[in-house]
Design a protein that fits this description.
heterodimer; A: alpha/beta; D-Maltodextrin-Binding Protein, domain 2; 2 domains; 8-stranded mixed sheet; 15% strand; globular; B: MetI-like fold; two-stranded antiparallel ribbon; 1% strand
Chain lengths: 439, 294
C-alpha cells in the first residue's frame, strides 16, 4: 500500500509538471492568435479539460482550434485511462482544486457520488437560459441518466445501448436465423458451440463488476430490475432467471477463462472469430469489428437485443458526459466550451467518427449515421425512444452495489449449488446499501 | 558563542532532516490513518467526516468478506513463504558448489527478482490464460488435463503463489548464499574425522549454523509477502468471486472504489496490527533459536 501511495504521489507530480509544461506550450502557441481582431468574449481565458482516453476525445481534439479562435478561450486538454481518470478526478476534486474546469465523467457510475460530494455544477440554469442550445433535442433517456436529485449534473456526450453481435457466416452455414428471443439465442449458442474447432457459442463479460451492465439487458428483458423504489430486487424469480441464463451461457458455451474477462478481452475474443455470439454495448463496436484487428470483420452482424419474457428491453443510457467543476474560476467560459462541444454542429462531427451522441436531430441526418454500420444504425434508431435509463443499480455507491449483483452471476458460472441462498445474501447486501443511503 | 551552540547541538542538527522525514512521511500518515478510522468519510467536500467511534471496526469484524480476506492473506503468505524458504535454501546449497557457468546460472536465477511485478503479473496472466496460455500447453504436452488457473476460484490463489514463488525465491537464495559463505570449515573437518555422512553434516552443521540467516531471510520475506499487492491487482484484482482478495486489495477497494475512507483506514490499522504481531512473533522465535545455538 505504501509503495502504491508513493507511486501515486509520483504520478501526481508528473501530471502536475506535464500540465505546467502543456499550459506553457499552449500559451506560446496561442498567444497573438487573434491580434488585431475584434475583442472575443473570453479573450485570454484558459480552461482545463480532462478527458478519458476515449475516441470522443480523439475526435474533439482536432476541433479545439476552431473553438479557441471563435471565443478566445485557450483550452488545455489532458487524457487519462478510464480507471485513472476516476482516481485523478476524485483526488483533485477532494482538494477543492479549481481545475479541471470541465471533465468527462460516467454519470451512472460516478454521477451521484460526485454530485453529493459537491463536485458537479448543476447545469439547469445554463441550459434553460439558452433557447438556441435546444435541450429538447437530447434523448430524454440520456438526460435522465445524467440527472441527480432533479438537477442536470452533466451534459450527455456518449450514448450506449445493449445489442447482440453475431457471426453471419456461422449462422448461414448452420442455416439458422438471427435469434430474436433469448431462448433462441441459447439454443443457437448450443448449436454453434464447437470449441474443438476454436469457436465458442457465446462470449460476454464475466468479471464480477464489469458484467453487471451487460446482464442488465437480460434482467430487464425477463421483467426484472436491480431495485424497485427503495427495495433491492436481485433475488426475485425474474432476476434469478436472467442471472442464470447469462451465467449458464458463459459457463456452458463461453471460453474457459471468461470469468476474468471484461469488455476489452471479450470484444477481442469475438473479433478474433472465436465466438458466435456476443452481447455488449453498441458503443464498443469498433473494437469488436475493427478490420485492422479482426479477420472476420465483414462477417459481423448487429441485431437488437433478443426478447425475454418481458420483450426486448435493453438499457439506453449516457455512458459519458461532460461536467463542470463548481470551483471553476470562469464558469461562463467553461459553459461556453460545454455548449460548443455538445452543440448540433460538433456532435455531428464527433458522431461521424463513430461516437454515438445524444441528439435526435443528428441521428436523423444521413451524415450523422455515416460513421456506423448500416445494420447498427437501424438497431439504434429502433431503440431511439424508450429503453431503460440505467444499466446498473442507481445508488451512490455504485461500485459496491455492482459487486453484489456480479457475485450472483459469478456463482452461476462456477456452479454454486445453493444459488438462491447466495442471491438472498447479495440482495440483503444491496438493501443495506440502499437503506444506508436513504438515511 | 555560536560555534559552541552548534557544537553542543550537533547531534540534533545532523539527525534533524532524517527525523523530520520520518515524522512527516511515516508517523504522520499512520496517525492520520488511525484518526480517519474513527470517522465515516467519502472524501466529500460538502459533508465533513462524521465521528462514528469504533463502528468501522465493529462492522469489519462482523464482515465475512473481511475474514475471507484475512484467510486469503494468511494462506497466501504462509504457503508462499514456506515454499520460498525451502526452495531458496535448496537453490543456495546447489549454487555454492563449484561448477562451470556458475555465475551465469546465478544471474539467470536472480532475474525474476529484478523484473517489475506489475509487468510480470500481466505476463503470468497470459501464461495462465486457459485457451492460449503456455501453462496449459505445457500440461497438455506432458499429457495432463488443462487447468483453469486464475479463472477458477479454487486454483486462483495457488496460481498466484506460484508467481510469487517464481519471483521471490531468488531473494531467499541470495541471502542464504551470503550466510553459507560465512560458515567456517573446521566443523566439517571435525565431522569428517568422526566419519559423518553428507546428510548428517547438513542436518547437524549446515542447517543449525544457517538458521539465523534463514530466519532473517524469512522475516524480510514475510513482511513483504504480507503486503503483496501488485501481482494480485495486475492479474485477478481479487477475483474470481473474491478468491484472491487479500487485506491489501480489500483495503484498496474500500478506499478507492467504494470511497469508504473510514472503513479502509480501520482495515489498514487492523492490518498494521497483524503485520506488527507476526513480525514480533518472528523476532521472538529467532531470539529463542539463536539462544539455543550460541
Amino acid at each position: 500500500m505504501k509503495r502504491f501511495r508513493s507511486l501515486r504521489l509520483l504520478a501526481g507530480i508528473w501530471a502536475l509538471s506535464v500540465s505546467v509544461l502543456a499550459s506553457g506550450c499552449a500559451g506560446i502557441s496561442h498567444s497573438g492568435h487573434n491580434r488585431g481582431e475584434s475583442p472575443l468574449p473570453f479573450q485570454g481565458k484558459t480552461i482545463t479539460l480532462v478527458t478519458a482516453n476515449h475516441p470522443w476525445a480523439d475526435a474533439i481534439r482536432p476541433l479545439l482550434p476552431e473553438f479557441e479562435a471563435a471565443t478566445g478561450v485557450n483550452v488545455i486538454i489532458q487524457g487519462f485511462f478510464e480507471d485513472q481518470l476516476t482516481q485523478k478526478l476524485t483526488l483533485q476534486l477532494t482538494t477543492g482544486a479549481e481545475t479541471p474546469d470541465v471533465f468527462m465523467y460516467r454519470p451512472l457510475q460516478e454521477g451521484k457520488l460526485f454530485y453529493k460530494n459537491g463536485w458537479l455544477e448543476p447545469l439547469d440554469d445554463y441550459v434553460r437560459q439558452d433557447a438556441e442550445y435546444d435541450r429538447s433535442d437530447f434523448s430524454s433517456e440520456a438526460i435522465r441518466s445524467a440527472t441527480v436529485d432533479g438537477k442536470l449534473a452533466g451534459i450527455p456526450v456518449i450514448m450506449e445501448q445493449g445489442i447482440l453481435y453475431y457471426r453471419k457466416d456461422l449462422l448461414q452455414k448452420a442455416g439458422i436465423p438471427v435469434p430474436d428471443t433469448i431462448d433462441k439465442l441459447v439454443s443457437a449458442a448450443r448449436l454453434l458451440h464447437d470449441p474443438d474447432n476454436g469457436v465458442y457459442g457465446f462470449v460476454a463479460r464475466g468479471q464480477r463488476s464489469p458484467l453487471v451492465t451487460q446482464v442488465s439487458s437480460f434482467l430487464y428483458s425477463e421483467g426484472g430490475d436491480f431495485t424497485s423504489g427503495q427495495q433491492a430486487t436481485i433475488n426475485t424469480p425474474e432476476a434469478m432467471r436472467a442471472f442464470t441464463i447469462y451465467g449458464s451461457l458463459l459457463r456452458d458455451y463461453g471460453p474457459p477463462g471468461v470469468i476474468n474477462m471484461s469488455w476489452p478481452q471479450a470484444s477481442a475474443f469475438f473479433a478474433e472469430g472465436k465466438a458466435a455470439f456476443y452481447t455488449d454495448a453498441n458503443s464498443i463496436f469498433k473494437s469488436a469489428s475493427d478490420p485492422a484487428r479482426s479477420t472476420i470483420a465483414e462477417h459481423i452482424g448487429f441485431a437488437s437485443f433478443p426478447a425475454g419474457g418481458n420483450g426486448s428491453r435493453t438499457y439506453n443510457i449516457t455512458s459519458w458526459g461532460l461536467a463542470m467543476n463548481p470551483k471553476a474560476v470562469d464558469k461562463a467560459a467553461a459553459w461556453a466550451f460545454i455548449r460548443w462541444a455538445t452543440s448540433k454542429e460538433i456532435v455531428l462531427q464527433t458522431q461521424r467518427k463513430g461516437n454515438p451522441g445524444a441528439r435526435y436531430s443528428v441521428w436523423n441526418m444521413s451524415e450523422g449515421t455515416a460513421g456506423f454500420p448500416k445494420e447498427m444504425v437501424e438497431v439504434i434508431k429502433q431503440y431511439g425512444i424508450g429503453g431503460v435509463d440505467h444499466d446498473r443499480p442507481t445508488v451512490i455507491n455504485v461500485a459496491e452495489a455492482r459487486e453484489t449483483v456480479g457475485e450472483i452471476v459469478q456463482r452461476v458460472m462456477t456452479g454454486d449449488p445453493d444459488l438462491q441462498q447466495a442471491a438472498d445474501r447479495a440482495n440483503a447486501a444491496l438493501q443495506a446499501i440502499l437503506d444506508k443511503e436513504a438515511e | 558563542m555560536q560555534y559552541n551552540w552548534f557544537d553542543r547541538n550537533l547531534k540534533w542538527i545532523y539527525t534533524m532532516p532524517a527525523v523530520i522525514f520520518v515524522l512527516v512521511m511515516m508517523v504522520f500518515p499512520i496517525l492520520y490513518t488511525v484518526r480517519i478510522s474513527f470517522f465515516e468519510w467519502s472524501m466529500s467536500a460538502i459533508t465533513p467526516p462524521k465521528w462514528v467511534g469504533l463502528d468501522n471496526y465493529i462492522t469489519l469484524l462482523n464482515d465475512s468478506r473481511f475474514w475471507g480476506a484475512v484467510r486469503s492473506t494468511l494462506y497466501f503468505t504462509f504457503a508462499a513463504l514456506a515454499v520460498e524458504v525451502v526452495l531458496g535454501v535448496a537453490i543456495a546449497l546447489l549454487l555454492t558448489r563449484d561448477f562451470r557457468g556458475k555465475n551465469m546460472v546465478k544471474t539467470v536465477f536472480l532475474l525474476p527478482m529484478v523484473a517489475t511485478p506489475v509487468a510480470m503479473g500481466l505476463v503470468w496472466q497470459l501464461i495462465y490464460e486457459p485457451t492460449i496460455g503456455a501453462a496449459n500447453m505445457i500440461l497438455e504436452a506432458v499429457g495432463l488435463k488443462p487447468q483453469l488457473w486464475l479463472a477458477s476460484p479454487n486454483q486462483a490463489i495457488s496460481s498466484l503463489i506460484i508467481v510469487d514463488v517464481w519471483q521471490w525465491t531468488p531473494m531467499i537464495a541470495l541471502i542464504v548464499m551470503a550466510g553459507l559463505a560465512t560458515i567456517p570449515t573446521d566443523p566439517y573437518e571435525a565431522a569428517d574425522v568422526d566419519g559423518a555422512g553428507r546428510w548428517r553434516k547438513f542436518i547437524s552443521i549446515t542447517l543449525p549454523l544457517l538458521k539465523p540467516t534463514i530466519m532473517v531471510a524469512a522475516m524480510l520475506r514475510l513482511i513483504d509477502v504480507l503486503k503483496t499487492f501488485d501481482i494480485i491487482y495486475a492479474t485477478t484484482q481479487g477475483g474470481p468471486n473474491l478468491a484472491t482478495e487479500t487485506l491489501n486489495i480489500y483495503g484498496y477497494v474500500l478506499g478507492f472504489q467504494y470511497f469508504k475512507l473510514g472503513m479502509a483506514s480501520s482495515l489498514l490499522v487492523l492490518f498494521f496490527a497483524l503485520v506488527m504481531g507476526l513480525t514480533i512473533f518472528m523476532i521472538l522465535m529467532r531470539k529463542r533459536m539463536e539462544g539455543r545455538y550460541e
